[in-house]
Description:
The structure holds two protein chains of two kinds.
Chain A: H1 4-17, E1 21-28, E2 34-39, H2 46-66, E3 75-79, E4 83-89, E5 95-102, H3 108-118
Antiparallel strand pairs in A: 1-2, 1-5, 3-4, 4-5
Chain B: E1 3-5, E2 10-18, H1 25-36, E3 40-41, E4 45-46, E5 49-50, E6 54-63, E7 66-74, H2 82-89, E8 94-100, H3 103-121, E9 129-135, H4 145-154, E10 160-163, H5 172-192, E11 197-198, H6 206-217, H7 220-228, H8 234-237, H9 240-254, E12 302-303, H10 305-316, E13 323-324, E14 330-334, E15 338-342, E16 347-348, H11 351-368, E17 376-382, E18 388-395
Parallel strand pairs in B: 1-11, 2-7, 2-8, 8-9, 9-10
Antiparallel strand pairs in B: 1-2, 3-6, 4-5, 6-7, 12-17, 13-14, 14-15, 15-18, 16-18, 17-18
Helix pairs in contact in B: 4-9, 5-10
Amino acid sequence: MANEKTLMEAIARIEADVGGVIATAIVDLESGMTLASKSNRSDFDLTVASAYNSELVKQKLKIMQALNLKSTLEDMLLTLSDQLHLIKIFPGGAAFLYLAADRSATNLAILRNAVNKHSASIT
Amino acid sequence: MAVLDSQNNAVVIRVVYDGAPLAGKTTSVCALGKGLGAGVFSPAELNGRTLYFDWLDYTGGLFEGHRIRCQIVSAPGQTSLAVRRRQLLESADVVVFVGDSTPAGFDADRAYLGSLCSVLRQLVGPPIGIVLQANKRDLPDAVPVGRMRSMLDGMDMKVGVVESIATEGSGIREAFVFAVRLALDRVRELMRTGELKTGRPAIDSAQELLDDMKRREDGALDLAVESVLTHTRLNALRSPTVASEVLEQVVREDAGVNELGSRSAQAAQTPQRSHRLNATGHWLAERAQPAAPNERVASGMVWPPIDGRTILQEIGSSSVQLNSSVAGDWFGVVNDRWRIHTQATAVYSTIEQGRPALIQLARNYAATFRSDTVERCVALAEDGQGKFRLWQIQRLERT
């Protein structure tokens, strides 16, 4: 995993490619602690979101194990009425990127493309 | 001092930043606070030097459904304040030792690490994990990380190492998150043994900690410090003995190492490459190399829990070349210090399937190598191919 400075630079590049980013974080899966984070809205508690999203990813991995699925969880795309959330799990599964964006300013394809494009510098 | 604060649905842990004077403890805590968006409280300082502690209170992450509340304190480094330093270290669930990477600071690091170990050795309960945050890596004369690891080996310490530049905030959060994981490993052990306390933390704020420290000292140390306080200079900590011991270690390192003799028939097999010929002389397809374990192994899947994770942290930060035997085992040597090995049959579809084997192997090790457990560990890790492998890691013996 890259250092915090590199992670923040990657976050900045992703935000440059995506309109309407509300918040972005790189999160340690095991503890739910953020390794790097940037929130563009004071009312969006990224610390809380990161912690509970780590539980979401862990639960999804448990579901896959229970179903005996052999594939790898790559990302999770969530559509809210006014926001889009993307969770990108990094190879190795120890950390993930969490991004929330304004649904009126972007779409899932742009989110996914921007994150995949800049993920290589993160891992 | 870990506590389960059920009223606030939080597990409270204490992360103590320790180190020699001027190593960068306060700078690290301030940089961490800035990154986490939390304020740092320093009750008292003199000429920029910490007299009591720096306090940072941060809640984030989740552990077993509970929020993780971190009381982050930095200990004063000056020798005249050793009593206060000791009191804080005795309350730690994990220690981030901020190491000064300058040649002069390197000797001081050794002295302070020694005293740190002395304090922690006297504490009961699961061992306190240590992360060495090797600071000042931007300086041109910074001691190579390899020499720092050699120093730790010479002191028989299993410590994770993270490089940092505190003035730039680089490496600070990485060291902190790793420290939190070590602390949570300890909390899990306390829960398993029924020793985790529940209720309100004994010290719940910076003011309470300050009041507690003053009450214990009864004001005597304050008076002494204010009247005769001088900067503890690094030269005062040096001695010819320390420098010659370090030099001796470097010489021994240059002499090289021997590979550990095999302990089983399988281990004695001549290593085979993944490419091999079949009966008709054609090359068989290369067997897919599994991913080596690293410090991100799931909690509860590494034994011993804290020392083992620090061993995995070193392995994870190094490049690992694995070879496979004819039988299908995988093995390799990391940094000329560790031998890692997984048997062909030690593959499991789920963690639950592999856990009994992990427990059995850990019991065998604990029974067989009672005085040597910190020189080896076992881990159940994802192999990068959708399965889990049981790894055995052993320290290579030196000549």
